[in-house]
Amino acid sequence: MTKRYQPINPKCTHMLHGGDYNPDQWIRTPEIWDEDMRLMTLSGCNAMSVCIFSWSALEPAEGAFEFGWLDTIMDKLAANNAYAVMATPSGSKPAWMSRAYPEICRVKGDGVRQPHGSRHNHCRTSPVYREKCVIINTKLAERYKEHPALLLWHASNEYNGGDCQCDLCLAAFHNWLRVRYDNDLDKLNHAYWSSFWSHSFPDWDYIIPTDRGIHALMLDWERFKTHQTIDFFNAETAPLRAITPDIPVTTNFMPGSDTLDYGAFAKAVDVISWDSYPNWHEHSDEIGEAVTTARMHDQCRAMKGGKPFMLMESVPSIPTRGRVKKRKEPGMNLLSSLQAVAHGSDTVQYFQWRKSRGCMEKFHGAVVDHEGSENTREFKEVADVGAALAKLDDVVGTTMQPEVALIQDWENEWALREGARVYLGENIKYRQEMNAHYRPFWQAGVPVDVVDQTAELDAYKLVVVPMAYMLRPGFAARLKAYVENGGTAVMTYWSAVVDESDLCHLGGIPGDGLRELFGVWEEESQSYLPGESVGIAMAKDNALGISGPYTAVDTCSVIHAEGSTVLASYASEYVEGQPALTVKTHGKGKAYYIAARTDGAFLNDFYAALARDEGLACCLAADIPEGVSVQTRSDGDRDYIFVMNFNREAKSIELGSPYVDVLTDQAVGATVTLERYGVMVLRKP
Ligand code: GAL
Q1: Does residue 356 line the site of ligand 1, with CB under 6 A?
Q2: Confidence grade of residue 2 (pLDDT, cut at 50, 70, 90)
Q3: 404-614 sits in which CATH class?
Q4: CATH ID of 16-395, from 3.90.180.10, 3.90.1150.10, 3.20.20.80, 3.40.120.10
Q5: Nearest residue to 253 via CA among 235, 229, 237
Q6: What pLDDT digit, counting tens, does each position of 412-463 carry?
Q7: Does ligand 1 have an atom closer than 6 angstroms to the CB of 277?
């Protein structure tokens, strides 16, 4: 049963709109603060992230705190009917602190401590840094706990997995290892297969994370970094939780990077938020950029079981990333902002509100340009988003309940990167493969949850598991039980090769009992160069009813059908005649195995056939033009159907029944036409 969640903070029942706001950069010109307030009202902005990098303004010298400027800003926000998403300032430490306490600066793998500078580079273990964070965070919470503008805590900024290998971090790592391996060094040495190249560890403190030859060690180091980051987050947010228990806490995730296990981190925050920076207009496959972004939105929503998330950062126009720094073209800001909402975001926020005058991000897109007025295209397009969000109060808290799960797993990604690179070289392309399996559903308007291997599977009709090279403990058994009970699973080449220590399964792959589930043995895998391909021929009268022919690229595995039915075979190269796609009935369900990386045509037809068999369909129209995305949020009673055109030209869709466009309050006819980058939000009249 779909439900409606509470707003992020019930203080505000509207969609949030705003961005990173750095009034401390304008302390010398307070008239700019007043202008900010006027422009916020004009652009429909109601939520500003303050203090993200303000530590030197809040505590210019050790123990000397200055909150006057922040008091003024908080009061102005409240008077302007706006809210503060208040950050803890730990993302960037003040210079006096690095000098007084050098231990707070990270030490690289070469043993050299980094000098003060840049940001996001503190040691996460240092007790001094943790103490300093607790002091400033306590002061912030005490001072603003009753303030009407305080809406949400934004812990730090984009915690990342960056290495610190100082003595404190290494000692913490060794303690973490002792817990993981029950204080049993022999257990660790076995898991690390450390007799290889004579690497056996005689004691815990010999273990240093610079030896990339020991893949299990690399995996553990990644796990530890996630553990230590969450531990740091918990330590610095403890005073916030104690002093302001009703104010939710988030931190902005970067699911586009692979440095932390965000699935684990998700449990520690109250609401998921993330920073989305696609490079619009820079790729020949612009639709692909929309697909990648959609997948990450779905991942962020699914991390908390469907709870609405926050788009914490996006760029209103020109990014600092990207090859040639293309500005968003007209319409793209509204489209990409509502794309986030369509997938479950209750906010649209930007980096940044106002362009700084100096330093790294002075040219980065902003709601307010150096010119300073409301007359820029950027500002007007942000105001368009503000106007659209103002129409979407009823969408706040709604969600979606997909029947398809795509398994994308952080630990598996690390294992592919660390453990499989020696074997598979450049053809790993895990994220591209995720997109390839996600795209047919996106294109068909069938919603998807993107979840990791720890997810509960029972609620899904279809579970897609590409390239699950490393299986977490228990996943294979749960997948098996899921199929036995009637679920449909799809798995691909290079799955269940190793266990959580990157130790190869003995007895053939897929291991961990999945050879029996899928009825295949994957004997070997051949890699191909760019431009090379292998034909795939569907079996005559196959049960899927698809005919091909298709092609495989990058890699083809040689599999043997062991009690499974061969649905397709290779049609060229030395693998000719060997199975490329199989299915096996197991209990009440079905288990498909795709042996190769295929072209998009195969995945489109294959998943269309599965969607037909499973009764998975778009709620709006059977025929959705390519590059148009349909996503539906619902509270169980009313559906809000977002229709988004990512094409550079107009597209029309036949709707079966009459609808109203929530954004314009206009009835729409039997056929709707979406302009280039057009977007509509439909509801039944
Ligand atoms: C984000 C970061 C912001 C800003 C932005 C620029 O990753 O959190 O502080 O640097 O990038 O795109």
Answers
A1: no
A2: low
A3: alpha beta
A4: 3.20.20.80
A5: 229
A6: 999 999 888 877 888 999 999 999 999 999 999 999 999 999 999 999 999 9
A7: yes
